[in-house]
Amino acid sequence: MAASSVAASELLYNMKKQILILHPKASCLIRRISTRSSRHYSQPQPRAKSAPEQLVGVVGLEIHAQIHSNTKLFSGSSVRFSAPPNSLVSFFDASLPGTLPVLNRRCVEAAVMTGLALNCTINRKSLFDRKHYFYADLPAGYQITQQRRPIAVDGMLTYSLLGGKKRNQVMRKNVHIKQIQLEQDSGKSLHDDLRSQTLIDLNRAGVGLMELVMEPDMSCGEEAAAAVRELQLILQALGTCQGNMSEGQLRVDANVSVHRPDEPLGIRTEVKNINSVRYLARAIDYEIRRQIDVLQRGGRVQNETRAYDSKTGETVPMRDKEGLQDYRFMPEPNLPPLIVYEDNTSLPTGTDACQAVVVQKIREGLPELPSVKRDRLVQTYGILPEHSFTLVNEDGLVEYFEAVLKSTKKEPRKVIGWVTNSLLGHLKQHDMSVSQSPVSPPALAELLELQETGHISSSVAKQVFQEMWRSSGKTASRIIHELDLGLVSDMAQLHSICQKVVDSNPDVVQAIRNGNQKVLNKLMGLVQKETKGRADTALVRTILLEKTS
Q1: Cβ atoms within 10 A of the Cβ of 168, count?
Q2: pLDDT tens for residues 159-203?
Q3: Using an 8 Å Cβ cutoff, are 150 and 180 in contact?
Q4: Three-state SS for 16?
Q5: Which of 62, 67, 172, 336 is the most buried (most CB within 10 A)?
Q6: Burial tier of 477 (Cβ tally within 10 Å: 0-12, 13-18, 19+)
Q7: Is 475 left (phi over 0), alpha (psi -120 to 50) or beta?
Q8: Cα(145)–Cα(137) distance, rounded to whole angstroms?
Q9: Arithmetic mean of pLDDT, 323-344
Q10: How far apart, in whole angstroms, are the C-alpha atoms of residue 249 and residue 270?
Q11: Within 13 Å of residue 51, how many CA atoms lie on the same side as its CB?
Q12: Phi–psi pair at 406, nearest 5 degrees
C-alpha cells in the first residue's frame, strides 16, 4: 500500500513537471490600447478548462475626422470630394523642393472647438512633428502630425445606449479621449488589377484631419458604434466635420483585444479604415469572437493589422504592426509652436484678435450638443427617450418636429408618432433626407389639426398623408374635399349603416351579448369599411354598444 502510494506521488510529480515544461506561466504587463505607446504586451495564457464567456472584449478607437474647411491644412488648395484626379494639388501638396507649410487657422479653430465639446484640456502650446513612412501616396515621405504635444488632451465622450427588454431604457456610458491632434491626410492609391498598376490621386494629400484617440473603455461592437455615432453627431452639430463616412470624412481604426476580468489586457489587433457604423460593430464583434476562439484552442493572438471584409463579415490579416521606431518621429523644423490664447486679455500687445485663436470666443460659440438636445426634448415635450434618439439622429428632424408643434394644438406625444413613423418611414423608403420631404411641417400640421378637431378620422388622416406625399403641393383640406373624405355627419345615415352591420352579423352580436366585448372591434371594422374610414370611431362604438346591448 505504501509502495503504491509512493509510486502515485512520483507519477503525479512527473506529470506536474511535464505540464510546467509544456505550459510555462507567462508574465503579463498591463497596457493601454494606443499607437502612441511603445510598450510590449504579453499574451494571456490559454486555459483549457475556462469557459469562453470568461474572456471579454476590450476596445479602443482611433478616429480620423476630416476637418470641414475650404482649403487644406498647410496649403491653399481647395478641398472637394470627387474632383478630377490631381486637380486640387499645390506645389506643397506635391512636396516640391522649396515649398513651406502655412497653417490654416480654420483647422486650428475646428480642433479647439471639438476639444471643448469633448471636455478636453486645450494645450495653450502644441507642437508639430514629422512621422516618417514611405507610401506612394505620401509624396514627402513623412506626415506632419502632433506626436509630442497635441492640441487637446484628457477629454471625455458620454454616449448612450438603449437597453432593457424593450430597448427603451437609456444607459449612459463614458469613454476617455486621450488626445486630439492635427495632422495631414495622405493621397489616394487607386489599384487597377486589370492592368496590374496603381494610380495616385493627390487631391486628398494635405487635407486637414483631427485624429481622436479613444482609450480602451469599451467592450463590444455595440458600444463602439454608439460612441462613434455620438461623436459623429457632435462633429456635425459643431460644423467641424461633415461626418460622411461613405466619403471618407470619418474613418475608424478599432484596437481590439480580449482578456479575463481582473487580469492584464491581452495582445491587440488593429482593424483599419472602417467607414460605416454598422460595419464597425460587426467587425469588432467578429474580431472578439475570433480572438476568443484562438485562445480557447490554445493558440496565440498575433499583434497585427487587419481589414474588415463586409461581404464575408470577417476580418482578414493585412500586415504586422509597425513598431514606434519605424516612424522616426522628429520635430517639424518648418513650423513654430502653435499658440492659442485663453481670452483677449491674454493676447500679446499689438496682436490682432481676428488673427489669433481665442479659446473663450470659441467656447461661447458652442451650439447645443446632441445629449443636451435629447434631454431637452424629453423634458420639454414629454416624449420617450427612444423618440429623442430618433429625432436627434436624423439631420433636420428635430427642427421639423418643433416646426409642426408650433402650428398645431395636437399633443407632442401624438405628433411624434407621425414624424418618426409616417414621415421618417416614407423618407427611408425613398432614400430622402428631411429637407427633401414633399410634405412640409405646416402641411403636416394642417392635417393633424383636421384630425384633432374631428373633421377626419385617424384612418383617413393616414390616407390623406399618402396622397400629400404623392401630390406635392396639395393641402390636406383640398385632398379631403376632392376625395370626399370628411367624417359622416348625418347621424341617421350612420345609425342606418350600424344597424345593417348588426343585422348581417348575428353570431358576433350574440357573442357580445354573452360578454365577449373584444369582437365588437369586428363590427367597428365593418362599419369603417362601409363608410370608407369616414366614421368617427368613438361615435361608432357608442352606437354599436347601444344596438348590441
Answers
A1: 12
A2: 998 777 777 778 899 999 999 999 999 999 988 888 889 999 999
A3: yes
A4: helix
A5: 67
A6: middle
A7: beta
A8: 16
A9: 88
A10: 20
A11: 3
A12: -70, -20
